[in-house]
Design goal:
The protein is mostly helical. The chain has eleven helices and two strands; from the N terminus they run αββαααααααααα.
Length: about 375
């Protein structure tokens, strides 16, 4: 479920290291990416890495049970909560690796559509110059955060190293999804910008050298006094038709990318959301237990749980916020298209369309219930 392009290769290589992208890139003589190929060697590597994750997880749990000072294995309930906590991390990583191995065709289709969208948007508003910096900032921020937390933990509890190493793998999967969804939201924003410039401002902003037409632009027609107003209107209508077709194709392609990610990589997303939910519950549970234990208050443990609570909240936002960005931009897209919507209304109070049927049905039902109750009471 990842975007693979020149500006965002840092995300691809990070995913490849942690087993989520078992692919290799073919380049031409100039170094440009020409093809993405599924690699048997990288598939074997990702499967071996997954097996290592399971072993590390088992070692971490065993060490915590046998440790003299255990933070999470003090009671039966704590042990059950910890087992679920660990297993959901392993399951999330598992589905991420499986999705990368069996979703190769879907990944190619996603990247083909994204490339077509970028090529069309380039004609209107140029390349996205911030794509590379966004990818670098995302990767460096997330890894710096998780590594700083892990360093503080392992300095005090070294036997937690195997378990918390899984979080690096888990965050790589979240980086992969956040980067892709963030990129889709940005493309919707660029589409809205192009739509705004083209139709809500009364002038064309496309350079003649970038447009694949041999005819002149609308402004050039206005300079030619020999061209009639009818020809100018016909040409303007022709260009607007082309623009609308391009914008509609961009919208359709981005929509299909979203559907493809939701369909073929939905289990991995579900496990990521489930892990966020479970970790927030379990971490809050251990924090409350520490605060309630007045006889043996451990400041280190309390601080640690607060840090993890903040971290898991950040993880949840890392998934939700890019999706919300896309939803906002998509809603803005439709608002621009429907800005001059013509429709029947009852004196502007309500719209007259199919939606009013449901409203009337519920209103009728409500008043019938009220009338029947009065009938029962007063005869």
């Amino acid at each position: 479920m990842m975007e693979i392009s020149e500006p965002t290769l840092i995300v691809f290589y990070a995913s490849r290291i942690f087993g989520y992208a078992p692919y290799r890139l073919e380049r031409n003589a100039s170094g440009k990416i020409t093809r993405i190929i599924s690699s048997l060697v990288m598939k074997s590597y990702s499967i071996a890495l997954l097996f290592t994750l399971v072993v590390l997880c088992t070692i971490g749990l065993t060490n915590d049970v046998e440790a003299t000072v255990s933070l999470r294995m003090k009671s039966t309930t704590s042990r059950i909560a910890t087992v679920f906590d660990v297993n959901v991390v392993v399951a999330s990583c598992l589905f991420g690796v499986v999705s990368g191995n069996i979703g190769f065709r879907q990944m190619l289709d996603i990247n083909r559509r994204i490339k077509e969208v970028d090529d069309i948007l380039f004609i209107y508003i140029g390349r996205d110059k911030q794509a590379k910096s966004r990818a670098i900032k995302l990767v460096l921020t997330v890894y710096a955060l998780i590594l700083s937390i892990l360093v503080n933990i392992v300095n005090n509890l070294y036997w937690y190293i195997p378990f918390y190493t899984l979080y690096v793998f888990l965050m790589t999967l979240e980086i992969q999804f956040a980067h892709t969804s963030w990129g889709l939201g940005t493309r919707y924003r660029r589409l809205n910008f192009a739509l705004n410039k083209m139709f809500l401002k009364e002038k064309s902003f496309i350079q003649a050298s970038n447009v694949g037409f041999t005819t002149a632009t609308i402004n050039e027609y206005r300079k030619n006094e020999n061209v009639t107003n009818a020809l100018r209107r016909d040409h303007a209508a022709y260009l607007h038709n082309i623009y609308l077709k391009n914008f509609a194709y961009i919208h359709e392609s981005l929509g299909k990318v979203v559907v493809c990610i939701s369909s073929y990589f939905g289990l991995a997303l579900l496990m990521l959301l489930s892990s966020c939910l479970l970790h927030l519950i379990v971490t809050a549970y251990f924090l409350i237990l520490s605060l309630m234990d007045e006889a043996d208050i451990d400041p280190f443990h309390i601080t640690l749980q607060c840090i993890w609570l903040t971290f898991h909240t950040f993880r949840l936002l890392l998934i939700v916020e890019p999706c919300n960005l896309m939803s906002v931009e998509l809603e803005s897209f439709w608002q621009q298209l429907l800005a001059d919507e013509t429709q029947f209304t009852a004196y502007g109070i309500c719209k007259i369309d199919r939606g009013i049927l449901t409203t009337l049905l519920w209103t009728i039902t409500t008043y019938l219930v009220i009338l029947l109750q009065f009938q029962k009471i007063y005869g």
